[in-house]
Amino acid sequence: MNSTAFWFLLTGAVAALTHMGVFALVQHLRPDVWPEAANGLGFVIAFAVSFGGHRWLSFKGTSTPIQQSLLRFGVTALAGFACNEVVFMVLTRHYGWFGLLALFAALVVASAQTFVLSRFWAFQR
After folding, report:
1. Is the distance from CB of 2 to CB of 58 less than 8 angstroms?
2. pTM listed for this prediction
3. Which residues in the chain show pLDDT less than 50?
4. Cβ 77 vs Cβ 114: under 8 Å
5. Which residues 6+ apart lie within 8 Å of 38 measured at CB?
6. What is the DSSP letter of 28?
7. Side-chain half-sphere exposure of 123, counting CA atoms within 13 A
8. HSE-up of 99 (CA within 13 Å, CB side)?
9. b/e map of 41-68 (b: 16 or more CB within 10 Å)?
């Protein structure tokens, strides 16, 4: 495994755990909050973890200016979150999956899209 893939997977895992932790905490402390909103809050907080890790670890050799990477990664992350939220909603509302399990599955589905867009666009070398 090359270093880009290693750091991408590690950063993604830490960001996913952050996302899931925030989701679980919000659902525990505020059960009246819609699961989709807790998912959104988890995304916002995990975004900072994800951008920092990808910018300075996964794609550290990039020549793309930080402002451009941030804008591009923001678009990339929002596309990933849109995919995540659709999968999450289908699994929880249509199939009745437990929230954390559905969120985990949704994060896995969205991660491949995020890698491709990050590698070849947001942090283009």
Report:
1. no
2. 0.86
3. none
4. yes
5. 22, 23, 26, 27, 30, 99
6. H
7. 22
8. 19
9. ebbeebbebbbebbbeebbeebebeeee
